[in-house]
Structures are given as structure tokens and as C-alpha cells.
Amino acid sequence: MWIETKTEMKETSRSRASFSRRVLDGVMLCRGDMEHLDKYIQDMSFVLQLAVWGLRGVARVILANNPLSGALILAALYWDSPWQGLLGTLGVLASTLTAVIIGQDSADVAGGLHGFNGMLVSLLMGVFSSAGDWYWWLLLPVILGSATCVFLSSGLTTFLNHWDLPAAVFPFNIIIVLYLLCTGTNNPYFPHNPAIPPGVLKPNDTELMAVEVIRGIPLGVGQIYATGALGPSLLILGAIVLYSPLLCVHAVLGSAVGTLAGLSMAVRHDSLYSGLSGFNGALGCMTVGGLFFTFSWRTNLFAIASAFLSAYSDIALSNMLGTVGLPACSWAATLTATLMLLLSGSLAAYRIPIGQAKAPECNLRSRSQWKAGNTEERESTDV
Predict the structure, then answer these.
(1) Which fold has domain 198-383?
(2) Would you list the domain boundaries of the chain?
(3) What is the pLDDT of residues 64-123, one digit of tens each?
(4) CA 262 to chain centre
(5) What is the CATH code for 20-193?
(6) Burial class (CB in 10 A: 0-12, 13-18, 19+), 296
(7) 3-class secondary-structure state, position 26
(8) DSSP 293
(9) Can you say whether residue 34 is alpha, beta or left, with left for phi > 0 and alpha for psi between -120 and 50 degrees?
(10) Cβ distance 221 to 258 under 8 Å?
């Protein structure tokens, strides 16, 4: 009897370990770039493939390439504002379908590289519109603006490929500025709210609330998708963790650095509390901190420097563009990241080619393989 009980306990323990192993394997399949999913759906219906491509495009906004992360982010947008969620969905679908119709590279389309600019354009059109939610006329410029991003992205990619640089969100920044300049604040069909430069208002006259400043750090990540609510911002952070914990650490670190930069320049308190001071820093830090550079203590310091430069550049551009009622959007992080990718010297050895950049954890393993391969090649050529 005692032997039978002991045997049953061992079998139960093995089954629990087996179940835990299966759960862990399932979680690991959902992390990173999920390349196995592309092979699984390649013979399935176009609608399903389009959905996966679109979700990858949603996640590409925060430099991720994971459809499940994209689904979580889309859920966060609908949670914050169903209207904004609808605009984002329409934008990413319009740009992705345009890329399919005009025959863009199939790998780029499947990777969501033609979806994220369209999504950002549609979200910002909704944010700056003064006509309120559910203003259906806005769908027209959303579709046209998102589709136009594909043409700009294709042309810029051809030009920037000479320096192994990504088109990034240059198309989004260009299209949204052109749209706001064309419509104006008093347009009868597409009116928008003007951006206010931080320097034109009277100085802060209230005591700074430390709790609100700390709360603004995760909101800085949410502001990448133009959402200023804490719950959706935390869900977006969870989506980044699903793709890459290391990338999430740099997102929070960059937002904190951007907030610190805002404090040092005495920006308006509402910019600190809402996360607007942190989102360019988050983007600048994520770009360098493992995505296009393999992670090390040197590149980590480099990522922090990139976050500071992005945040200070954003303050300067906001003051300059705000004088004509235009937002700085993500120009600061985009220009800073482009300059960082052109860096020469010892840090250039950590640079990852654009076409080979994956999740930071994968980049680390790839660098180890490259170093091992280079070492073997040197040893084989030694006489």
C-alpha cells in the first residue's frame, strides 16, 4: 500500500512537471518575433494573413514584431477610446492593403513594416481633431493619409538603404504635419486643435506632485500611441514584455529619462503628469538599447544618452513648431535615432544591420554566434 501511494505521488509530480513544461513552452512560443506563425498561416485565407500582418504593424509602433503584442495594444486603444481604436484599426488596414495592391515586398508587408506609419497617422488625426469623437468625415483623410504613408516609406527606404537606415516614422511625421498645415484650425470639414508651445504659457505656479510625476513614467510609453490613461498604458507595457522584457526595461528607462529632462527644463506640469515629456525618450532609448545595437554596458549608456538627446530635442522642437500651431510629434526621437545609427567608432561594432534586427534577446544570441564565427574564421586563417 505504501509503495503504491509513493508511486502515485511520483506520477502526480511528473504530470505536474510535464504540465508546467507545456505551459512554459507555450509562453515561449508567444514571445519574440513568432516567425513560426508566418509559416503556419502561409496557406490560409488572405483575411487571416491580413489580420496577422496588421497586428504586427500595430506592434511595430513600439519597435516590436509580435502579433499577440499587437492584439494587446489594440485592446488597450479600444479600452481607452473606442473611436481611437477604430481609427487605428482603419489606418493600419488601409496602409497594409495599399502596400499589397501596389506590390511592395511581401516580407516587409508580412512583417508589418507598411502598417505602423498608417496607424500613427490615423491616431494623431483623431487626437488633434476638434470635431470630437465619431466624426465620420474624418475617415476620409485617415484612409488617404495612411495609404500615402506607403508611397513615402517606399521612396525613403530606397534612399536610406544606401546607409543601412530605416525609414522609421519619417512618413508619419511628414504626413501629419502636411495634414495639419492643409486643414488649419478653422477648416469647415476637418478642424483641429493647435499645438501650444511650452514656453508661451505662464510659469508653473503650483507645487509639483511627485506621485503624479512617477505616474507619468508609464504614461510616457502609452503616449507613443497617443493614450494618456494609466490602465491602457500598463497593458501596452505588458505587450512589450511579451515581445521582449529587455525592450520593456528600456521603454520605462527612456520615459523616466525624458521625464527627468522635462523636470530639468521646468516644462509645464501637465506635460510631466500626462507622459508627454517621456515618450520621445522612451522611443530613443528603445531604438538603441537592444534593437539596432546588441545589449552591453556600453550600448546601455548609449541608450540613456539617446533618451536624453531625444527628450531635450523634443522640448526644443515643441517650442519652435508650437509657434505655428504644429506638434513636434516624434521628430525628436526619429532624428536622434537616425544620427545614432550613423555613429562610427567602437560602438559601431555593436550595430545590427537593419534587415537582421530582431528582439533584443535574439540579437544577443546572434551576436554571440557572429563573434564565435569570426573567431573560428581568424583561427582557421592563422599560419
Answers:
(1) Ammonium transporter fold (1.10.3430)
(2) 20-193, 198-383
(3) 999 999 999 999 999 999 999 999 999 999 999 999 999 999 999 999 999 999 999 999
(4) 21
(5) 1.10.3430.10
(6) middle
(7) helix
(8) B
(9) left
(10) no
